[in-house]
Amino acid sequence: MKNLILTTALLALTAGSAMAQTVRMGTEGAYPPYNFINDKGEVDGFERELGDKLCEMAALTCEWVTTDWDGIIPNLQSGNYDTIIAGMNITAERAEVLAFTQNYIPPASSAYMALDAGTDVMKGVIAAQTGTVQAAHVAASGATLLEFATPDETVAAMRNGEADAVFADKDYLVPILDESAGKFAWAGTEVQIGDGVGMGLRKSDTELVEKFNAGITAMKADGSLNTLITKWFGEKAVTF
Amino acid sequence: MFLSCADPSLLDGLNWLACYLTTGKHFDFYWSFVTVLVLLAVTAPTALAFGFGGAMLARSQHLPLRIIGKGYTAMVRGVPDIVFFLFFVIALDQGIEWAVHQVRCPDWTDPIRNGLEFRVCPQAKVPNNSAAQVWHSLYGFALAVVTFALVFGAFAANVIYGAMQAVPHTQLETAEAYGMSPRQVFHRVLVPQMWVFALPGLSNLWLILIKATPLLFLLGVQDIVYWARELGGMKTGAFDYPHPDWRLYYFLFLLVFYLCMTKLSEVYLNRLQNHLSRGQATAAGEAQRKGIA
């Protein structure tokens, strides 16, 4: 049975290749407004629109794939998709294993959100998503780090009182704070981490990195990238 | 789905709920129940076959076969499931691609392994990069079935091995005395009698398998728990249907689903147990005989 399924699958899957280059775009799908799964069940958000635009400019066919944040780098390396476009901050550690494009979101602030503005974020328990620059920052800051697999769970932990505050990209937290009807507040000071958000690719995919870099450069030059950032992150967002 | 759902912000009450529960995303959620049920329906018999094969190997007269059978159960049972699911699937996937690569791209000179990266030629990608997403999903599903069958097959092998040992030796000797060959003894006496001993262990495995399906997400298959968490999470105004954290309700629904599955399984397994005990030289079989007489 299992062999039958495998062989049929193999035959069907490997037949008919060598058409236009298809690039599989890997994202998390749980980080609005960067990327999320909309009510139709499709990947949506700032990065979806940006990615589609970049693919169009480079004449690539793009397929969107979602994966959990924890396995997003290993899955890229073993070839399950070709790019990571998931609000990933460019850092020196990640650049050791990934080839980043230039940033498509300028270095932006990370912020602490809590139930009470007076919360001391240097002590106490701070929630952050596993494997993010924010988690590393909390671990180094002296506060107790409480890690979660998805960004949504970090906010839920703060709301339930399990954590004193949540630490994440400010752009992610802004809509949540705005819609909380005054329940949540900013705490502590904002922090600048990383060199902005870029796409991560396999180091051996130099040609593809160049294609996306060219697209991002063009979008920075004609201002369409700024328009896109303002559309998704609001007027106050940092632009190029 | 409904025409009236075109602008969700105008809806309220039950209309809102009806539209909310029929979004494309919710249909993905409902569809994932089918995925899980199909996975169970395919995996259970496959795992049973693996288990039966493993038990036969472990009982073999020949030392090499016995070592394979015992080695299989010992190795898989000894490794934590989650490690197995993370490691084995990647190894299997890369093994398949490596083999295809050897056939299709003999002239490829770049290294396949480059540090942590695994890179075969584009023609050797399984499924091909340009294949529709449905093939990628099917491939992931097939890998999931193989992995589940392998893991649960090892446990089943041990249960079946034990059950075969539990069949009273006198039964087998009597069969031999009647002049049956070892093969006939196995088919006519040992196997029909061992099921009744294997069933309690196998029913345990079945229930564990039902609950192990969230591991599917590790294999890239989006299962019911993934969707429950995704749909239940707080939704801001970026979504058509904003709502607060509703994970509790989604997980309660899953709880009901899993409890129903367990209840159904218990009813069916009890019936099977009754059926298998009929005419057996066990306490249950004896009780049935007295009941009839």
From TrEMBL, chain A:
Coiled-coil stretches: none
Domain Solute-binding protein family 3/N-terminal: 22-236
Signal peptide range: 1-20
Domain of life from the UniProt record: Bacteria
Alphabetical list of InterPro entries matching this protein: Solute-binding_3/MltF_N (IPR001638)
Pfam families tied to this protein: SBP_bac_3
Keywords annotated in UniProt: Signal
Record-linked Gene3D superfamilies: Periplasmic binding protein-like II
UniProt protein name: Amino acid ABC transporter substrate-binding protein, PAAT family
Record organism: Pseudorhodobacter antarcticus
TrEMBL record, chain B:
Keyword check for Transport: yes
GO biological process, one term: transmembrane transport
InterPro entries: ABC_transp_permease_HisMQ, MetI-like, MetI-like_sf
Keywords: Membrane, Transmembrane, Transmembrane helix, Transport
Bilayer topology: Multi-pass membrane protein
Regions that span the bilayer: 30-53, 74-92, 138-161, 205-228, 248-269
CDD domains found in the cross-reference section: TM_PBP2 (cd06261)
Listed Pfam families: BPD_transp_1
Record's subcellular location: Cell membrane
UniProt keyword Transmembrane present: yes
ABC transmembrane type-1 domain span: 33-265
GO cellular component: plasma membrane
Highest taxon in the source lineage: Bacteria
PANTHER family cross-referenced by the UniProt entry: CATIONIC AMINO ACID TRANSPORTER, MEMBRANE COMPONENT
Name this protein carries in UniProt: Amino acid ABC transporter membrane protein 1, PAAT family
UniProt organism field: Pseudorhodobacter antarcticus
